[in-house]
UniProtKB/TrEMBL annotation:
GO-annotated molecular function: thioredoxin-disulfide reductase (NADPH) activity
Example of a GO biological process term: negative regulation of Wnt signaling pathway
GO cellular component terms listed in the entry, alphabetical order: nucleus
Protein name as it appears in the record: Nucleoredoxin-like
PANTHER family: NUCLEOREDOXIN
Length: 117
């Protein structure tokens, strides 16, 4: 773990010294960096973002036991029963989360506020 972090720090320091401010801005936009410190971890083979919150993950897991802090599969996060709308009914159906997640390529969660008057 420390090798990856050290490399990131070295790259940042070299970029500062070389004066490549334009490249830093491009990278900041690409990875959604709006504040510092920020540690973005990429998969070295695919170039995909593993996490944009590496610094926070490092603070939470300073021994790196869960490194590289990949996102958990949705089936590991959403468990138990969900409420599924039933066409023509105001009463939703209770279904197991696993069955919904396995049978659909796209799953959406709608969050809203309900104001009580």
């Amino acid at each position: 773990m420390t090798d990856g972090v050290a490399v990131s720090v070295v790259v940042h320091v070299l970029a500062e010294r070389a004066g490549v401010e334009q490249d830093k801005r491009k990278l900041s936009r690409k990875f959604g960096v709006h504040g510092i410190p920020r540690l973005v971890l990429l998969d070295g083979e695919t170039g995909r973002v593993i996490t944009r919150d590496g610094f926070d993950r490092l603070q939470e897991d300073n021994r790196g036991s869960a490194f590289p802090w990949r996102r958990k599969p949705l089936a590991d996060v959403i468990k138990g029963t969900l409420l599924k709308p039933v066409e023509g009914s105001e009463t939703p159906e209770q279904v197991e989360a696993a069955s919904v997640l396995e049978s659909n390529k796209i799953v959406g969660f709608y969050f809203s506020a309900q104001w009580v008057s």
